[in-house]
Every structure is written in structure tokens, then in C-alpha cells.
Design goal:
By secondary structure, the protein is of the alpha+beta class. 55% of the residues lie in helices and 8% in strands. The strands form two sheets. Strands 1, 2, 3 and 4 form a four-stranded antiparallel sheet that branches. A two-stranded parallel ribbon has the order 5-6. Strand 1 and strand 2 form a beta hairpin.
Length: 264
Amino acid sequence: MGNDLFNMDAKQDLSDPDPVRRAQIQSKLPLPKRFYKVAAVGEHDGKFTVELDGRVVKTPARQTLALPTRAAAQLIADEFSAQEKDIDPARMPATRLANTAIDGVANDRQAVLEDVLRFASSDMLCYRAGSPQRLVDRQTALWDPIIDWAASDLGARFVLAEGVMPVEQPREALSAFSVHLGQIKDPFAVAALHTITTLTGSAILALAVAKDEISGEEAWKLGHVEEDWTIEQWGEDAEASARRLIRKREMLAAVAILKAVSPI
């Protein structure tokens, strides 16, 4: 198949996986025509592949697009099946994430986990508004239970701050958090965790999803408390709404891959 469909994403730096920017770039490129009739899941050597009319899909780096579970491969096959006259990579977030996992994360899993840990050191949940009081109360009501969970279940006691001035998190908290991150071995799960972290601004929320403490929808809501507050006060324009929809699609695809490969 035409692997150049996803080459733009393969070059995207993992530390800045901006789905909106990717979509903008891809929107300027002519979309290839759908050239296959059937997208299906195959099994080879204990792994699950995606096949287009019987031909195995390759990653941009020409590796076989093979996943550890049938459920994960089915997510990608479904994205190929959903394409109509054209193949639009912007609408195939699970496929792009799988490419990233195989061509990038599998070669340097630890570097990606360290990037997630850097998010934890300045996690969005730890920075609270000073006003208005209703926003303060909403953040407290929604975010404190996750902070308490991190302390009780992970042994990671994070320090809260008001405003945007940086606060240094205790070394013990980050060390405890790192231990739990290290339990995530699968490169697809690591790639998904990184995506959830960047799209919510919170490594704590991402790990809570991985450990089944909260759902993907709940993590999305908790990651957008302040944005939702602003929308309630001032409304939202169509362009901002479209950008948000792209980000949410990326987020939920990452959650689906995370759950499909082997939740911890």
C-alpha cells in the first residue's frame, strides 16, 4: 500500500504530537484514493496484522503493522474500512498511533516514559485558579479526588499551587509515580499514554486511565475544566470547536488502543 500516507506523522516529534497541526498539514496535501475493497485482521506468528484485500499493511518505516491483540488490530482495520472515496490519515488516529509505536516508541520506550514523567513534574492538576470562586470550587471538586488517588494508590503525594508560578514537586512523589509508569511495557500502551498526557496536560490523568481509575471520557472532562468554564462564560467559535473535536478524537483513539493492548 502507499506508505507515504503516514510519512508526515512518522516525522512528527513525539514531544509535540499536535493533531491539529497534523490535520492542517495533511489538509494541504491531495488525499489518495481508496484502492482496496476489504480491510480485515490477519494473524501471523502470534501477532495480529491489518490486511487490505489480503495485503498486509506496512508502517512508514516499512515494518509490518502488527499488534499484540486482535482487538487493537480491529481498531485500525475499522479506520481503514471507514474511509470512503479518499484515504484521510487525519481521520485515522489509531493507525497513526500504531505507526508511532512501531517505528518510534519500540526503539526508545524509556525516553517516552521520561517525557510523560516531565509532564507529571508540572502537572495541570496541581495548578489551581485563584478566582473566580466557582471555578476554584469546580477544580477542587473534580481534581482533588484524582490527586487523593495518586497519593493513596500510587504513593505519589503532589503539591498544589495557585496560579502559574512553578512549584517543585517532591522527589519522592515523582519517584513513586515513575515506578508505576515503568510498569507499562507495551510500546503501543506507552504511545497511547503519551498521547493522553499531551492532550489533557496531565500525566496523572493518563495513568489514572491506564489503571482503570477513570474512563477516557472522564479524563477528557477533567483535562478541560478551565476551557469548559471559559466556554460557559464566553461561548465557543466554530473553528475552536473543530480543533477541539480533532483533539478529542485523538484522545479517545489513544484510550481505545491502550485498553485493547493490555491495561495494567
